[in-house]
Amino acid sequence: MKILMMLSMMLLTDPSTLYEFKPADINGKPFDISQYKGKKILVVNVASECGFTPQYEGLEQLYEKYKDRLMIIGFPANDFGQQEPGSNSEIQAFCKKNYGVTFQMMSKVSVKGSDIDPLFKWMTNLPNPDFTGDIKWNFEKFLFDENGNLVHRFRSKVEPMNDAVKNAIEGK
């Protein structure tokens, strides 16, 4: 009976949408993702010393083009080749100085392994039309619809301004 109650409690607390998560922003303050209900949300694991780091520029262009209906949320992670060694304040300064980032940046997290952030554990296990499973490298992109449901996932090599990304945002 006790095990059944524990399982029921776990099922009741499992998130069903992105809006149930409240990760820490780049300044360490709680961030309520639900404030963006009604907009598409692109969640990206980012790194400052990666071959894909120039995608920050494309992410900023994408944000500027669609910010009336899209929020981009960048999560720095040091899981691949130690390519995000900086502190949150160093990451924030790097992004502003080198790429003029104005989209939302979060505190550094782990996106794989035993210490995986709960949001990334949830996202990598969601069914979606593209693929499920572990994140393979920096700059993977998860696109959520206006209701907080995952609708597309793009691997690192897909540039932010790629037609597939833009079409998914535009609902084509």
| Overall SS class | alpha/beta
Fraction of residues in β-strands? 5-15%
Q: Summarize model confidence as the mean pLDDT.
A: 91
| CATH topology grouping | Glutaredoxin
CATH class: Alpha Beta
CATH architecture: 3-Layer(aba) Sandwich
Total DSSP helices = 5
Mind summarizing the main beta sheet? 5 strands, mixed
The order of strands across the largest sheet is: 3-2-1-4-5
The CATH superfamily title: Glutaredoxin
- Which residues sit in consecutive blocks of at least 5 with pLDDT less than 50? 1-12
Outline the fold blueprint.
Layout: H1 2-13, E1 40-46, H2 55-66, E2 70-76, H3 88-99, E3 104-105, H4 118-124, E4 141-144, E5 150-154, H5 163-170
Parallel strand pairs: 1-2, 2-3
Antiparallel strand pairs: 1-4, 4-5
Describe this structure in words.
The chain is α/β, with parallel strands linked by helices and 172 residues long. It has one domain (17-170): 3-Layer(aba) Sandwich (Glutaredoxin), CATH 3.40.30. 30% of the residues lie in helices and 15% in strands. The protein is built from 5 helices and 5 strands. The protein has helices at 2-13, 55-66, 88-99, 118-124, 163-170, and strands spanning 40-46, 70-76, 104-105, 141-144, 150-154. Strands 3-2-1-4-5 form a 5-stranded mixed sheet. Helix 3 (88-99) links the parallel strand 2 (70-76) and strand 3.
